[in-house]
Specification:
Structural class: alpha/beta
Order of helices and strands: EHEHEHEHEEHEHEHHEEHEEH
CATH architecture of the largest domain: 2-Layer Sandwich
Largest sheet: 7 strands, parallel
Number of strands: 12
Shape: globular
Strand content: 15-25%
Distance between the termini: 11 Å
CATH superfamily of the largest domain: Dihydrodipicolinate Reductase, domain 2
Strand order of the largest sheet: 3-2-1-4-5-7-6
Helix content: 25-40%
Number of helices: 10
Length: about 290
Amino acid sequence: MAHGRTRVAVLGAGLIGTDLVVKLQRSPVLDCCLVVGRDRESLGLRRAAEMGCATSPDGIDGLLEASPFDVVFDASNADAHAGHWSRLRSTGATLIDLTPTQLGELVVPTINGDTAPAHRHVNLVSCGGQAAIPVLHALAQHCTPTYIEVVSTGASASAGRATRLNLDQYIATTQAAIRAFTGAEWVKVMVNLSPARPAPPFRVTMTLLAADLPSGPILRSTVTAAADRVRAYAPGFSVTSMEADDGRIRIAVEVTASGGRIPRHAGNLDIINGAAVLLAEQYAAARP
């Protein structure tokens, strides 16, 4: 503990890592002690230093030299994550993975976030998964989905190099998590990165097929309640449309960012980082 707060470090100084530092500095219980990257001249490391954080350009080596930490956030890339966990495992730190690896315990805060402190290695699926799964899981408590389709559209400017390199893993991990949290056998996930100007907000459109869909009032109240729970850590989450007919329900949500240095259209960063900070605060509360 540092000054009564939980010591945390951020591994990765890209778009996700930089926004994560901003959110961590607003936490009353988390102390962001280090941000590491692999390029001494990177904009992310410069911004972290400007915010008063210690930084290192030596990647996982630099982080291990500065250990111990209570919680480490991996905001690097999926290909590197397995090696990071292998080297961090013996340090006793809890690792919160923001890359789409399918390693560790899959966690969506509104569904199984209360169990996260029991695991030292958790995975936050993807930004699209964090936006869609709370709604889909809630619906699956009232019907038996046979097919689910999720299409995420984000602004090109809000997708950094690591996100672009990991698109295949993003799709595979999001599909696997949707199956795990809904029981649907057939799941299809698609991703669009839009270069449009002005930049569009982060949008996720869901289509669910089920022969036993409940009545309209139950659907509306279920989706509304799920959205309310997500807004506890992603205030810009909103349901923009919902329609149901003949065993099919279509739902669209948008996530806008607020209260940080990122632009409003970067809701994809806002929702997954909001989830990450919430989990770390739960770890802090569970510490003896």
